[in-house]
């Protein structure tokens, strides 16, 4: 019985996704092969630019509202459920919440880029203009 419990525990551990917190640095975004999803608003993308090659997909609108079903439908067109990807926002507050939700509740493999675009800009990163 103990062996069965241990096997079930190990199996369930492998199935659960993860949330990894990494500082948003120019080195990371320039060298990563994983997809980066920018969850800020269009106004914010125009204001600061975006990470080159990132995907723009708003989670919270300007009023703080969100559409989980719409977000997940769009996200699933960008990443596969078992694919590791990163989330970025302005400072990391929104991505912290969204990463934990996606990873802990929905079993995605999420990297939260702490410090967000503000940290990247502070460290000399040159963004790409949002069109």
Give the SSE layout.
Blueprint: H1 2-15, E1 19-23, H2 26-31, E2 35-38, H3 42-48, E3 55-56, H4 68-78, E4 84-88, H5 93-105, E5 109-114, H6 116-122
Parallel strand pairs: 1-5, 2-3, 2-4, 4-5
Shape, per Cα inertia axes: globular
Q: Biggest sheet, open or closed, and with what strands and sense?
A: 5 strands, parallel
- How do the SSEs run, as a string of H and E? HEHEHEHEHEH
Report the CATH architecture: 3-Layer(aba) Sandwich
Strand order of the largest sheet: 1-5-4-2-3
Structural class: alpha/beta
* Number of strand segments: 5
Report helical residue fraction: 40-55%
Low-confidence parts lasting 5 or more residues at pLDDT below 50? Answer: 2-15
According to CATH, the homologous superfamily is Rhodanese-like domain
Distance between the termini: 59 Å
What is the beta-strand fraction?
Answer: 15-25%
Q: Tell me, what is the CATH class?
A: Alpha Beta
**Residue-averaged pLDDT:** 89
CATH fold annotation: Oxidized Rhodanese, domain 1
Number of domains: 1
How many helices in DSSP terms?
A: 6
Which value, in Å, is the CA radius of gyration? Answer: 16 Å
How would you concisely characterize the structure shown here?
By secondary structure, the chain is α/β, with parallel strands linked by helices. The protein has helices at residues 2-15, 26-31, 42-48, 68-78, 93-105, 116-122; strands at 19-23, 35-38, 55-56, 84-88, 109-114.
What does this 3D model show about the protein?
The chain is α/β, with parallel strands linked by helices and 131 residues long. The protein is built from six helices and five strands; from the N terminus they run αβαβαβαβαβα. The chain has one domain (17-122): 3-Layer(aba) Sandwich (Oxidized Rhodanese, domain 1), CATH 3.40.250. Strands 1-5-4-2-3 form a five-stranded parallel β-sheet. α3 (42-48) links the parallel β2 and β3 (55-56). It starts with a helix and ends in a 9-residue tail after the last helix.
